[in-house]
Design brief:
The protein is an alpha+beta fold and 403 residues long. Helices cover 37% and strands 20% of the residues. It has one domain. Strands 3-2-1-4-5-9-8-7-6 form a nine-stranded mixed beta sheet, sandwiched between helices.
Length: 403
């Protein structure tokens, strides 16, 4: 590609996105009210326990650290009668098998949407969102290693995290005979249901989602896409690698120290939305990030290439640097917490929608603690468990309260 087709970045003042729809006090409903919208899979004849009560217990128990279906029931049985009544149990409490049979039959996608919407109503509203503070959504998948189905197959979930609030906006189950790529569009549908619109949002995904169909789909929803480019797109990878990076000045550079290492991250970006630009739909900029690490006197260097559908006027190099690092949040602040704090990979839930449902409950628990200001989720779950009455008051109240 001729270098004359590559124009330098134009630095302009960022404009403002359309403000998000405000959340009124009347919409800040308690958990029991929100869960009333979950479809009940049970036969209406013989129903003894309200669905919203059973689900509220599951949410509260996982917020308090329960890591299995059995632990959810134990938490309920440990409550006194007054606390049980406040959650909706006025005629005794169910045994563990009753709770389990219900949870594994739920519509996991619908439950994820309802709980994410409930959490979002309890976060502070930001009246205006300049481009630099646009909604950044990290997309990534996770295999539930303990949830083995018939034939040894494992359950795989694709999730989307709002990196500014720590709330998992949506989660869909990947078909056992497929991969994450076909699940991307249903995930967008679920995100759009929670947010109301994807206009102006930036979705960041790994190289698996560097697909032309994804770029077209995201743009059709008036959102933007940033993806890493690797060997699964060999032509695009060669185009990015051959750009005249030596002639492009560094746009942003950061240096970090910690855990016995020094790391320098250098970002270069160049406009490619010109005739004869790179072969990826709606790509406005090509990005190269170089990570140089020094550990115990040894230096290593790693180079990554990305594309983004935002023009230079709305995505300066320092913004790109911040957004790229935010993609790690879904791994570090969600998936790793589910494994370490809730021991997800050791949990052998495998029946029906059970694996996806309990993963959704864990996402909700982490999101709840993030929105209440917790930085150590393990400590926050222990505090919630010791203060079960305060937890019940907080989640069932019509207005946000911290514990």
């Amino acid at each position: 590609m001729a270098s004359s087709l590559i124009t330098a970045l134009a630095v302009t003042a960022p404009t403002s996105n359309s403000p998000a729809a405000p959340v009124t006090d009347g919409e800040r409903a308690g958990l029991l009210h929100a869960l009333a919208a979950v479809p009940d899979p049970r036969d209406p004849r013989g129903v003894r326990y309200p669905l919203s009560a059973l689900l509220a217990v599951a949410v509260c128990a996982v917020i308090a650290g329960a890591s299995s279906f059995a632990a959810i029931t134990d938490w309920l049985h440990d409550l006194d009668e007054d606390a049980q009544a406040r959650l909706g149990f006025t005629r005794g409490v169910p045994v563990g098998t009753t709770v389990w049979r219900l949870l594994i039959r739920l519509d996991d996608s619908r439950l994820s949407i309802i709980l994410a919407t409930w959490l979002r109503t309890r976060t502070s509203h930001v009246p205006t969102r300049p481009n630099r503070y646009r909604t950044v959504i990290a997309v990534d998948g996770k295999t539930l290693r303990g949830a083995r189905l018939d034939g040894g197959r494992q359950v795989h979930l694709l999730s989307a995290l709002d990196t500014s609030t720590g709330i998992v906006l949506a989660q869909v189950t990947v078909d056992a005979k497929s991969n994450e790529i076909p699940a991307f569009a249903p995930l967008l549908d679920a995100i759009e249901t929670v947010l109301g619109t994807l206009t102006g949002a930036l979705l960041i995904a790994d190289a698996l989602h560097t697909q032309t169909s994804h770029a077209v789909e995201v743009t059709a929803r008036r959102a933007h896409l940033m993806v890493q480019v690797k060997g699964n797109q060999p032509t695009l990878f060669k185009q990015l690698k051959r750009l005249p990076w030596a002639q492009i000045p560094a746009g942003d550079r950061t240096r970090d120290r910690g855990h016995g290492r020094r790391e320098t991250r250098t970002v270069k970006a160049v406009t490619v939305a010109t005739p004869g630009g790179i072969g990826f739909p709606h790509a406005q900029q090509a990005v190269r990030i170089t990570r140089t690490r020094v550990i115990a006197g040894r230096t290593s260097r790693e180079t990554a290439y990305l594309t983004v559908s935002l023009p230079a006027s709305q995505a300066l190099p320092r913004d790109l640097q911040t957004w790229i690092r935010r993609h790690w949040h879904i791994e570090n602040k969600i998936h790793n917490v589910r494994d370490v704090t809730f021991r997800e990979d050791l949990h052998q839930a495998r029946t029906g929608t059970g694996p996806a449902v309990i993963a959704t409950l864990r996402n909700t628990a982490i999101g709840w603690h993030r929105t209440t200001g917790a930085t150590n989720i393990a400590r926050a779950t222990r505090q919630a468990n010791r203060r079960s009455r305060d937890l019940i008051t907080a989640v069932t109240s019509s207005y946000p309260r911290t514990q």
